[in-house]
């Protein structure tokens, strides 16, 4: 059977699955995608108005080529649909100059020739008065960075896939994904079983629910986002850069597209574990906001410390924080992409394209062996 004629299921049309459905349909596959909700919902990893897009990675520079591939596809999806899914405003990295993350950032910049500026405290105070830095901090501006609109992106990729012929079965949870002897995959839902040549499985935090026998652990956590108003002197924030503080007091933030508020997030150590993704506690208790208020008081003099909005989401984390990408052991027709550990949005179009490579060709030319792979993936 030619690759273009393959019938491929996509299980979960969230961040990665909606992109996989687009890339598969664009390459001529016969695509049926399923979601327990509908594309663009905010009940798992994809809600909350904005996500950071950045070229620079302070933990592993090998993400940079994936970000570059994703960048090409971000532009392509925007051009094909006329929607502004991403806006490039830059990203500031701040942290102690001797912190391993900040040192790694400089190494990655040098290795990949990233467009950047190193700023001193005086330049930060003049150009970015929203921020206060500690003595001994290094500040780097990653110029090729900005924010993504997550709900709009997921819905746009899914709709584009539909325009290209994909069928999306909304509010249809998949109960089982099963290899068929001799090749192919069966997908079982409440309404019946369908047969495919291959399946791309992208259930996000539900991965343990759907594939309970997976030999890798994906732990689900509950990140909280909180929004704060800019003070009167700091209006016009929508064009200001995102920011990440690296080191002991780490947090990140994104000016909201409305121009009057900034969203803040904390890193994994602050997230509560989620026992059952079907019972996410979406209520944020007042004491959960104390760490945010402390960050605002210490580092963000341009924000009013009373939050105006807060929400809880879910994300799957692997122990290594590297995602699971590749065919399931012993079953080349089931391609799993899960456990993105707080890193998945910026690279999601690239991941969708790689999923299409693996489902249609059985290999990909993109270098993903540094990610926890589940089987044979390199070309
Ligand atoms: C608050 C927060 C902030 C983040 N910030 C950033 C950031 O700034 N930059 C960045 O790059 N990344 C960021 N991330 C990480 C990024 O958002 C995630 O890595 C990414 O969204 C994960 O995508 P996914 O497709 O694995 O999961 P999801 O987007 O959650 O998609 C999973 C989909 O599968 C569906 N599904 C599940 N089970 C089934 C089933 N059995 N049948 C049918 N459908 C099913 C779900 O309904 C859902 O639509 C952040 C994550 C969170 C939570």
Short summary:
This protein is an alpha+beta fold. It has helices at 15-26, 63-81, 100-112, 121-127, 150-163, 207-210, 290-299, 348-361, and strands spanning 7-11, 30-34, 51-54, 86-88, 91-96, 116-119, 137-142, 145-148, 167-169, 174-179, 185-189, 192-196, 198-201, 219-222, 224-230, 242-245, 251-255, 261-266, 272-273, 303-312, 315-317, 324-328, 331-338, 372-373. The chain has two domains: 3-47 and 151-217 and 320-373, FAD/NAD(P)-binding domain; 90-146 and 220-317, D-Amino Acid Oxidase, Chain A, domain 2, CATH 3.30.9.10.
Written overview of the protein:
With 379 residues, the protein is of the alpha+beta class. It has two domains: 3-47 and 151-217 and 320-373, FAD/NAD(P)-binding domain (3-Layer(bba) Sandwich), CATH 3.50.50.60; 90-146 and 220-317, 2-Layer Sandwich (D-Amino Acid Oxidase, Chain A, domain 2). The protein has helices at 15-26, 63-81, 100-112, 121-127, 150-163, 207-210, 290-299, 348-361, and strands spanning 7-11, 30-34, 51-54, 86-88, 91-96, 116-119, 137-142, 145-148, 167-169, 174-179, 185-189, 192-196, 198-201, 219-222, 224-230, 242-245, 251-255, 261-266, 272-273, 303-312, 315-317, 324-328, 331-338, 372-373. The strands form five sheets. The protein has an eight-stranded mixed sheet with strand order 6-7-5-16-17-18-15-20, sandwiched between helices. Strands 9-2-1-13-23-22-24 form a seven-stranded mixed sheet, with helices on one face. It is globular and about 65 Å long. The structure holds flavin-adenine dinucleotide (FAD). Flavin-adenine dinucleotide (FAD) binds at residues 11-17, 34-37, 44-46, 48, 51-52, 173-174, 202-206, 210, 223, 225, 265, 313, 315, 338, 340, 342-346.
């Amino acid at each position: 059977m030619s690759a273009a004629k393959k019938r491929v299921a996509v299980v979960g049309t969230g961040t990665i699955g909606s992109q996989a459905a687009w890339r598969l349909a664009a390459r001529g596959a016969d695509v049926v995608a399923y979601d327990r909700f509908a594309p663009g919902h905010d009940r798992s990893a994809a809600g909350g108005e904005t996500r950071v897009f950045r070229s620079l990675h302070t933990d592993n520079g090998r993400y940079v080529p994936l970000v570059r591939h994703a960048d090409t596809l971000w532009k392509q999806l925007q051009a094909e649909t006329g929607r502004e899914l991403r806006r490039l405003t830059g990203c500031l990295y701040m942290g102690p100059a001797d912190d391993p993350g900040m040192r790694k950032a400089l190494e990655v910049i040098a290795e990949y020739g990233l467009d950047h500026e190193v700023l001193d405290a005086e330049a930060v105070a003049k150009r970015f008065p929203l921020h206060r830095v500690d003595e001994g901090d290094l500040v780097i501006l990653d110029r090729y960075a900005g924010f993504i609109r997550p709900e709009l992106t997921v819905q746009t990729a899914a709709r584009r896939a539909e325009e290209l012929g994909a069928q999306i079965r909304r509010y249809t949870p998949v109960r089982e994904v099963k290899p068929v002897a001799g090749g192919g995959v069966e997908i079982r839902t409440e309404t019946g079983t369908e047969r495919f040549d291959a399946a791309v499985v992208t259930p996000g935090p539900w991965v343990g629910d759907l594939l309970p026998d997976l030999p890798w652990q994906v732990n689900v956590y509950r990140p909280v986002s909180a929004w704060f108003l800019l003070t009167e002197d700091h209006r016009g924030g929508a064009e200001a850069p995102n920011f990440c503080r690296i080191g002991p007091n780490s947090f990140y933030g994104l000016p909201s597209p409305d121009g009057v508020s900034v969203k803040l997030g904390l890193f994994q150590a602050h997230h509560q574990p989620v026992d059952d993704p079907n019972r996410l506690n979406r209520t944020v208790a007042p004491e959960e906001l104390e760490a945010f208020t402390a960050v605002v008081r210490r580092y963000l003099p341009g924000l009013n410390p009373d939050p105006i909005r807060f929400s809880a989401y879910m994300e799957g984390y692997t122990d290594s924080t590297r995602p699971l990408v590749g065919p399931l052991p012993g079953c080349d027709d089931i391609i799993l992409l899960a456990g993105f550990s707080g890193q998945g949005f910026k690279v999601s179009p690239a991941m969708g394209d790689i999923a299409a490579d693996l489902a249609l060709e059985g290999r990909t030319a993109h270098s993903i062996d540094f990610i926890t792979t589940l089987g044979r993936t390199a070309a």
